[in-house]
Each structure stands twice: as structure tokens, then as C-alpha cells.
TrEMBL record:
Keywords recorded for this protein, A-Z: Membrane, Transmembrane, Transmembrane helix
rRNA-binding keyword on record: no
Family: Belongs to the autoinducer-2 exporter (AI-2E) (TC 2.A.86) family.
Region of interest (Disordered), residue spans: 771-795
Organism encoding this protein: Shinella pollutisoli
Name of the protein described by the UniProt record: AI-2E family transporter
Spans through the membrane: 27-46, 52-72, 79-101, 180-203, 242-270, 276-296, 341-366
InterPro entries: AI-2E-like (IPR002549), GAF (IPR003018), GAF-like_dom_sf (IPR029016)
Topology of the protein relative to the lipid bilayer: Multi-pass membrane protein
Subcellular localization, as worded in the UniProt entry: Membrane
Membrane in keyword set: yes
GAF domain sequence ranges: 629-778
Domain of life: Bacteria
């Protein structure tokens, strides 16, 4: 029977309406998308007279809304809050305008006195140049034009032809006034429209938000997140931009005043305002003070000082002030910033250039939250389009192992060697395994194999295992069947050696059941079998049986990198004939450490005491929480945490010198209880003590996969597979205990969820101490901004 082409013919087994789309349908959709985009661009261009005031108004509304909301939260009616904010802004602008007008008037009266200095400098420049040059020709042309314009017209001869001049009808004063007023009224009318829109946007913000939610439709959660993120990011962007401009304008005005440039306040203000215009604004603002310094000073010192001041302020603003104020991320890539500036300038002119960054941020946020428009996030966002494993795998496919090595080293420097192998290296091998029998060709498979060998050789040289290698290996890692299994075994061996465990590996093709007798494993304590197959049970069971027969003293660990969950359950390793099963490099390293050094493994379960432990314990007892203070409130917070994160239960623990006290819980728990019903346990058996010791959040996605907690007494008592603990840190830096999430199923927490857990922990501290808590746990430290040009957009 002829094989059906899945791209052209519908699947007969599919339900009605689920036929696969043909290439022709994709082309029609692409054409429709281009038509819609062209219509939208045309509408933006043709409707710019209406859309520009709207966009400017909403931009100003984003900037003023935080102040209006602040006044409204303090009991002032929103109408009065809007009026107060707008009157304050207008009063400030008017006062600044009057001051600047005074500066301009004083400067205009002094300009004629600078003509002599300018001509003398130009003459000196002309004399300093050998022979006639471009500057001299330009000066001669200016002089000739000036003489021509000032020359008296010659009177015609009395007997010659007379020149006839046609004089038009004189315009009335009304017509003259109308010609002058119309150009002036147009910007005033636009300003009035903007004023009305700003007032309405601030006053009816809730109604506008509801209407926008209705327009976005779809998932209400996504739409709400998109609107909140857009509003927050644009408001913060404008506030940070204002602060950056102020930190530039004030030193500029002060520096020009000290140098002696006239109108220092005026040029500082111009510099601050012009920096709202990306790219060209700072250059334009620098021309005026430099030109004036050239005109005022007979020498060159004032010009050089002014240029030095501007260069120093630009360097400080771009490299110190902006990264410090903007924080974590620009949000937009360098290419998207430049493309957006060009696009909006072509559509809406200079005002479009000012609005380009906020408008592009809105598009970026929409693309992040609406699945249909996710291509906008890919086109505009600063985050890499491909994750690190995909980038390395693509470089290997492209036969570019050098760049793959550079990416790997950068990732290792950002985390660790074990972390790279655990998160990135194995992900690369999974991509290669998934493509092995499908998309990849023989040439691609050869490139990946050679590239991985070169990558691992380079990493072993770059990150050698210091002090390990002379003694015989205690762990031998063996590839199960394919070359990819051997590469995984090589990664694991390097990770073990880097962590101080003597380890070796065998290349592919040497560990089949027929070659077990040829293996030299004398002196080894553990052998680790590496499998990437999704169904490794039969092959692993057979190989374990032969290894047991040949080397009965060995302990066998199965590394099942791509195994189904049923083979990872507790006790499944015994059915396969192994002593343990691991699913990640990190777990394998910890498991080997526990196997080879049981005493160190037991010590790892017990957390070390923090340096401020005595003061921490005194603060805990002084809070009165161990005596039952705020127990009902803490139980309610634990219940809220369990509901919000959808876990089995949550507890709030406090740890003193010897014991852990459960001072808040979402449900009744087993354990030793005191007279007032508080659950207690020895401090050495408390998982939360690790949180107290480090002062940082601890997340264990699956306790069975972490040897430190696989058979931990508290974990066993409460039958938990997932643990997450956020420290209860006081403003003084004392960690009183932890807010803990626990469940019988494995979980994973996103970065945003970790931040929310830290915020809940801060609320718990506020209840315990009656004070504001310190920095919430889980919030990542601000990293360096990404390398972009132009204006930066904070997260």
C-alpha cells in the first residue's frame, strides 16, 4: 500500500476538523499576515494626526500615574489627585520656562559682542593653514555675499528705460494676524488635545484597562499579566530615564557655570531634555555649549574644558549611572532598538523617535504574553533566540566546535563544571539522540561525534582535576551501547574527578556483554553504566547480571539519562540488579560521594551553624513567637502559601539552639508535640536548618533524587518528595527559620515563583516581629545589563 504523505493528505484517523494543514495553507496564512501588517502600517501612517497625540498622552499618563496612585492610596479622591499632579507639573514647567526665557533674553543681548572673537579665531585658523583652503574659500564667499547684500542699488539713467514694479494689494491687519496665528495655534491645539487625553487617561484608568482587557480577550490571566507588565515597565523606564537625564543635566549646568560658559542653566536643561531623543539628542545638545565656548573665549581653553566635560559626563552616564539605575535587563535587543527608532521615525517623524522605545516595549510585552504574537518576542527581545544547549548543538552541526567550546566555557564560568554537564551537556546529548534516527544525516552525526570529542578534550584541559589521576580510579563510568552513552559517561567521569573522586571511563563499543570479561576493573569500588535509551531495562539488567558474576565486589549504579519515571522509583534499581539509579550528573556526583564516603554523606545532612547563631537565637526568643505569639496569623499564612503554590502543605519553622519548632502549619502534622500542641524535632534532623545556615532559599525538586535528603528523617516522617524553604530574615540579618512548601509529588519552581515565596516569607517576618522584613529571599541580584545601544528598558 502506498504510504500517505502526512503533509498533503489528512489523517483518516483524526477527528473531524483535525486535518493537517498543507503547504498551500501555510502560504495563504503568510500572505494574509503580510497584508494585515501592511494595512496596520498604512493606518498608523495615515492616522498619525490622531494617533500621535494619543500616544504622547498615554506616555505622559504612564509617567504620572504612579504619583496619582500614591496620592489616591493616601485617601485623596482620584479626581483631586489627578488635578493636583497636573497642576504641579504645569507649575514646574511654567516656572522652568520663565527661568529659561530669562536666560535666552540675557544671552541674546550678549551675542553681538562675540562677533569680534569669532572673526579673530577664524582669521587665526585661516592664517594657520598653508595656501588657499576650503575654510578660506568659504570665508571669501561669505564676505562677497555680505557686500552684495549691503550694496546700494544704482539709480537708472534718466533717459533710459524705467523699471516697473508691480505692487500688490496690501493685506489687511486681520489677514496678517491670521497668517501668524495659524502656525502658532496648531501646536497649541495639539497640546490641548494631549492635555485632555492625559487627564482622561489618569482619571479613567480602571475603565481603560477593562476595555483593553476586553479587546485582548482570550486568557484573562495572560491579558492581565501583559497589561501589568507593560504599565510597570514603561512607567519604570520613564522614571529611570528622567533620573538619568537629571543626573546628566545638573552636572552639565554646574560644570558649564564653573567653566564660565554663558547660559549654563539653559544648556544643562537643553541637554537633559534632548536626551529623551535616542541617539541624536545628546549630539545636538552638545553643539550649543561648544559653539558658545568657541565664541566667548579668545583662547581655546574654554572649548577644550567644555568638550572634556561633555565626554566625561557621557562616559559616566552610559557606563555607571544607567546600569545602576536601569538594573537587570534592557528587554530590547540592540537591533530592535535601532530598527524601532527608524520605523517610528519614518511613520511619525521626530516625535516617533521619542516614542519608539515605549511603543516597542508594548509590542514586546504583547509578544511575550499572547501565543499568537510570540514572534514579536523573538524579533524584539534581548534574550537569546536559542537556549544554550541548542546553540552548542547547532554549532556542532555546523562543524564549528571552536564556537561551541567558547559557549561552553562561558556557561561554565557563569555556573560550574558540574552544573554545565548536568544542565547543558546532557541536554545537548538529548538533542543529538532525538535527531539520530530522524532529521540527522550521516555527515551531521559524524560532525556531532567529532565535535563532542573535541569539546570534552578541551574542557578536560581547561578544567583539570587537581590532585586526582595518579591513583587508580575508584569509579569507572561505562557507556551502555551507543556512542552517545559513552560521551555521557565521559562527562560524568570528568565531573567526578573535578569533585575529587578518582574516576575513569571506557570508550564506546567496549562494554557489550561479550566484552565484560575483557574489562579491567580491579581496584574500582563503583561502576556506573550510562544509558540514553528511553527503554534501557533489558540491556541494563543483562549487563548488570554479567558484571555481578564477573566482579561480585563492585557496586553498580545505573545512570539513566532519558529513562521513563517508573525506572526511577524507589526500589526499581533492585529489579535491574543495580545498587542505585541516578538521573542527572549532579545526583550521580552526590550519590558517589555518599557511597564512597558514608561519614561525609551523613555530615552533609547536618547544616553548619551560622556565625551569628547566638544573636539569631536571642532575636528568636525576644520575638515571643515560641510562646505562641501570632499563631493563628502564622497558620493562616501557611495555609495561604499551600493554596497559592498548590502543594500538599506548608509549614513555618523556627529554630533555636537545639530544636525546630513548627510555629505555623496548613494542616496537622505528625511528630513530637509540646504541651501547647507545637510540633518539634531535633535541630540536627531539620531540613530548614540548611536554610538557616546559608540564609538563602533552598529548593529540592525531588528528594529521592538528592542523596542528602533521600532518607532524611524529616522527609521520611512527612513522606515528601518536594521541599522549598525561604529564610525568615529580619532587618538585622538574623534568620529565625523558614517558610517551607512540601508535597508528596516532585515540583519545580520558576524564578517568579521563588520571588513570590520570598515575598510571603517577608510577610511572615513582619507578623513575627511587627517590623518590615529585609530583602525578600529568592530575588535575584541585579546582573549587568545586556550589551545594547541607545535607551535601556528595565524589567
Amino acid at each position: 500500500m502506498r504510504k500517505r504523505d502526512p503533509l498533503l493528505a489528512p489523517d483518516p484517523g483524526a477527528r473531524d476538523g483535525e486535518a493537517l494543514l498543507s503547504p498551500q495553507t501555510d502560504i495563504v496564512r503568510l500572505a494574509a499576515a503580510f497584508i494585515v501588517a501592511a494595512v496596520l502600517v498604512a493606518a498608523l501612517y495615515l492616522g498619525r494626526d490622531v494617533l500621535l497625540p494619543l500616544a504622547v498622552a498615554f506616555l505622559i499618563g504612564f509617567a504620572l500615574n504612579p504619583f496619582v496612585s500614591w496620592l489616591a492610596r493616601r485617601g485623596l479622591p482620584r479626581l483631586l489627585a489627578v488635578i493636583l499632579v497636573m497642576v504641579t507639573v504645569f507649575a514646574f514647567i511654567a516656572g522652568l520656562g520663565v527661568l529659561l526665557a530669562t536666560q535666552v533674553r540675557a544671552l541674546s543681548t550678549e551675542l553681538p559682542t562675540y562677533q569680534t572673537t569669532i572673526r579673530e579665531k577664524l582669521s587665526d585658523l585661516r592664517a594657520g593653514m598653508k595656501g588657499p583652503g576650503m575654510l578660506e574659500g568659504a570665508l571669501e564667499t561669505v564676505d562677497a555675499v555680505q557686500k552684495e547684500m549691503l550694496a546700494e542699488p544704482e539709480e537708472p539713467a534718466a533717459d533710459g528705460p524705467q523699471r516697473v514694479e508691480i505692487v500688490g494689494v496690501a493685506k489687511s491687519p486681520f489677514e496678517t494676524a491670521f497668517e501668524w496665528l495659524v502656525p502658532m495655534l496648531e501646536p497649541l491645539a495639539t497640546a490641548g488635545i494631549v492635555f485632555v487625553f492625559v487627564f482622561l487617561a489618569l482619571l479613567d484608568r480602571s475603565d481603560l484597562r477593562d476595555r483593553l482587557l476586553r479587546l485582548l480577550g482570550g486568557n484573562l490571566h495572560r491579558s492581565t499579566t501583559a497589561i501589568e507588565e507593560a504599565g510597570t515597565r514603561i512607567s519604570k523606564y520613564l522614571l529611570m530615564q528622567l533620573l538619568v537625564n537629571l543626573t546628566y543635566a545638573v552636572p552639565m549646568a554646574l560644570g558649564l557655570w564653573l567653566i564660565g560658559v554663558p547660559g549654563a542653566l539653559l544648556w544643562g536643561t537643553v541637554a537633559g531634555v534632548m536626551r529623551f531623543i535616542p541617539y541624536i539628542g545628546p549630539m545636538i545638545s552638545a553643539v550649543f555649549p561648544i559653539a558658545l565656548a568657541f565664541a566667548v573665549d579668545p583662547g581655546w581653553s574654554m572649548v577644550l574644558l567644555t568638550v572634556g566635560l561633555i565626554v566625561a559626563l557621557e562616559l559616566a552616564s552610559n557606563n555607571v549611572v544607567e546600569p545602576m539605575l536601569y538594573g537587570t535587563s534592557t528587554g530590547l535587543s540592540a537591533m530592535s532598538l535601532i530598527a524601532a527608532a527608524t520605523f517610528w521615525t519614518l511613520l511619525w517623524g521626530p516625535v516617533g523617535l521619542v516614542l519608539s522605545t515605549p511603543l516597542t516595549v508594548c509590542l514586546l510585552v504583547i509578544g511575550r504574553n499572547l501565543p499568537q504574537l510570540q514572534f514579536l518576542d523573538t524579533l524584539l527581545g534581548s534574550s537569546p533566540a536559542l537556549d544554550v544547549p541548542t546553540r552548542i548543538y547547532q554549532r556542532l552541526l555546523a562543524d564549528d566546535p571552536e564556537e561551541a567550546i567558547d559557549i561552553a566555557i562561558d556557561e561554565i564560568e557563569a555556573s560550574s563544571l558540574v552544573g554545565f554537564y548536568n544542565d547543558t551537556g546532557m541536554a545537548v546529548l538529548r538533542l543529538a539522540g532525538a535527531d539520530h534516527g530522524g532529521n540527522s544525516t550521516a555527515e551531521h552525526r559524524l560532525r556531532v561525534a567529532n565535535g563532542m570529542d573535541e569539546l570534552l578534550d578541551d574542557l578536560r584541559e581547561e578544567y583539570p582535576a587537581d590532585g586526582v589521576g595518579k591513583e587508580s580510579p575508584r569509579v569507572v563510568c561505562l557507556g551502555g551501547k551507543w556512542h552517545i552513552d559513552a560521551v555521557a559517561a565521559e562527562m560524568l567521569a570528568h565531573a567526578l574527578a573535578h569533585e575529587g573522586i578518582p574516576a575513569d571511563f571506557h570508550a564506546a563499543g567496549g562494554v557489550s556483554t561479550r566484552h565484560v570479561a575483557k574489562l579491567e576493573l580491579e581496584g574500582a569500588d563503583v561502576v556506573c553504566l550510562s544509558y540514553f535509551s528511553p527503554a534501557p531495562a533489558a540491556a541494563a539488567r543483562q549487563l548488570c547480571r554479567r558484571l555481578r558474576h564477573r566482579f561480585p565486589h563492585l557496586r553498580i549504579v545505573l545512570a539513566l539519562w532519558n529513562s521513563p519515571p517508573d525506572l526511577l522509583k524507589d526500589g526499581a534499581h533492585r529489579d535491574l540488579g543495580a545498587d542505585a539509579v541516578v538521573a542527572s550528573v549532579d545526583e550521580a556526583v552526590r550519590r558517589m560521594q555518599h557511597m564512597l564516603s558514608p561519614d561525609e554523606g551523613l555530615a552533609a545532612r547536618t547544616a553548619t551553624e551560622p556565625e551569628n547563631d547566638p544573636g539569631r537565637i536571642d532575636a528568636l526568643h525576644a520575638s515571643g513567637v515560641l510562646a505562641g505569639h501570632a499563631r493563628e496569623d502564622l497558620d493562616a499564612l501557611a495555609k495561604r502559601a499551600a493554596d497559592v503554590f498548590d502543594v500538599g502543605f506548608a509549614v513555618i519553622s523556627a529554630i533555636d539552639a537545639e530544636r525546630e519548632f513548627i510555629i505555623g502549619q496548613s494542616k496537622d502534622l505528625p511528630g513530637m508535640t509540646t504541651a501547647d500542641g507545637t510540633v518539634v524535632m531535633p535541630r540536627k534532623q531539620a531540613v530548614c536548618d540548611h536554610v538557616v545556615a546559608s540564609g538563602e532559599m533552598l529548593v529540592v525538586p525531588d528528594t529521592e533524587r538528592d542523596p542528602r535528603f533521600a532518607d532524611h528523617p524529616a522527609i521520611t516522617l512527612w513522606s515528601t518528595r518536594f521541599y522549598a524553604g525561604a529564610p525568615l530574615k529580619t532587618p538585622d540579618g538574623h534568620v529565625l527559620g523558614a517558610l517551607c512548601l512540601l508535597d508528596t509529588r516532585p515540583h519545580a519552581l520558576s524564578e517568579r515563583e521563588k520571588e513570590l515565596l520570598g515575598m510571603l516569607a517577608a510577610d511572615v517576618v513582619s507578623v513575627i516581629t511587627g517590623e518590615e522584613a529585609g530583602e525578600p529571599a529568592g530575588r535575584e541580584a541585579a546582573s549587568s545589563p545586556s550589551a545594547t545601544v541607545g535607551q535601556k528598558v528595565p524589567e
